[in-house]
C-alpha cells in the first residue's frame, strides 16, 4: 500500500482530520492538527485520499493518551486522543470554517466554546446493540464503520449509575433462554438494551427493544433487582421490521414506571422511553441560564418549535403571557402536557405535528425558540421567519453546517446578538451552538 508523510492541518465538520498531498485533500483517521505522520492510503479518488496512520513521526501538542480502554475500537467517541482544552478550540474552528465556507459570513461574532469542568460521565442515554457469540453475550457499541460490537463493561461518558446495570444485565442474560436478534438472519427477539436516566434524581429507566413481545414480568423483576434503588421501571419497545432504526412504533410498560424524572433549574420533567431530552443536562442547564440572561424579560407570546417534552418552553414560561410548543413525537407531547401540570405552568399549550406544517398557521410570536434536528430548518420555517419577522429568535443547533446554511439567509433580516457554542458531547466532534438573533431595527 502507498505511504507518504503529512502534517495534519485542521479538523473539519464531520470530525475528520485533514491535510493535503499533491493537490488532493487527505483525510486521516485518528489524526490531530499538528501531528507529523506517516500515513497509508486506504482509498484514493480524483479529489481526495482516505488514509490511516502507520507511524506518528512527531505528535501534536494537542495529542494526549486516551482515558478509555476501548478507544479507538469503540465508535462511541472519536476524539479521546485530543487533549480536552484543544477539543474546545477545534470545535470552535469547525464552526468558523462552516460559517465562512457555507454561510459566506467572514466576521463571525463567536465566543469560545463553553466546556465542562469534568467532561466525563455526563451522557444520560445509552443505546446498546447486543449479540450472542458461542453462548457469550456481547453488549457495547459498534466499531466505527462496522456492525462489529465492541464488548464493554463500563463507559467513561455515560452516567456512572449505568455501569453496574450494564454489567449485571450482561451476566443476567448469560443464564436466560431469551434469544438475541441476528440482523443478517432477522432472527431472535432482543434487539437493543437502552438505559435512560438522571444524575439529578438518581433514576434509571430500562428499555428493551424486541422484535416481538418477549419480556415477561419475572424477567423484569430480575432487571429491577440489579439496582432496586435507582431502576424505576422496565419498558418493552417492539420493532418487528428489518431495519437499522432502533425503535418500533409500539411501547408497553412491563414493570414500574414507563418514564423517569429529570430536574433542571428547579423544574421537573417527565421523560418517557421514546421522548427526546438533551443528553447532557449539566451543559443544557448552562445554555438555558445564558439564554435567559440575553433574552428579554417580558413577552406576550413565545413559540417553542421542536419542543420535545417542554424543556425550553417551561424554562421561559415565567416571562410570557402565552407559550406555544410544537412537537412531532406523540410520546414527547404526552410528556409535555404532563410537565405543564407537574410545574403548574398553565400558560403553555402544545400542538402535535411537524413544525413546517404547524408554524405557518400561527401568528407572529415575540420570541421564536428553535431546536431542530441535524438537518436544520425546513424551507417553510425559514419562510415563516422572513415573512413574520419575530423580534427575537433563539436558535439552538447541533450541526454547524446546517446552522451556517440557515444563518446565510437569516443575517439579511437579523443581527447576531450572541453566538455561544457549548460542549454537549466531549470526546466527539459534535458541538451545540446557541445563536440569539435580534430583528434589524428592533
Detailed description of the structure:
With 442 residues, this protein is α/β, with parallel strands linked by helices. The protein folds into three domains: 3-63, OB fold (Dihydrolipoamide Acetyltransferase, E2P) (Beta Barrel), CATH 2.40.50.140; 100-116 and 276-439, 3-Layer(aba) Sandwich (Rossmann fold), CATH 3.40.50.150; 125-263, OB fold (Dihydrolipoamide Acetyltransferase, E2P). It has nine helices and 22 strands. It has helices at residues 84-101, 162-174, 217-224, 281-294, 311-316, 330-342, 355-358, 379-388, 400-410; strands at 3-7, 10-11, 17-21, 24-29, 36-44, 48-58, 125-133, 136-142, 149-151, 190-197, 204-210, 231-238, 250-256, 259-264, 267-272, 299-305, 320-327, 348-352, 367-370, 392-397, 414-422, 432-439. Strands 9-8-7-10-11-12-13 form a seven-stranded mixed beta sheet. A hairpin with a 2-residue loop joins β3 and β4. α1 crosses α9 (400-410). The longest helix is centred in the first third of the chain and has 18 residues, at 84-101. The chain is globular, with a radius of gyration of 23 Å. The model has no long low-confidence stretch (mean pLDDT 96).
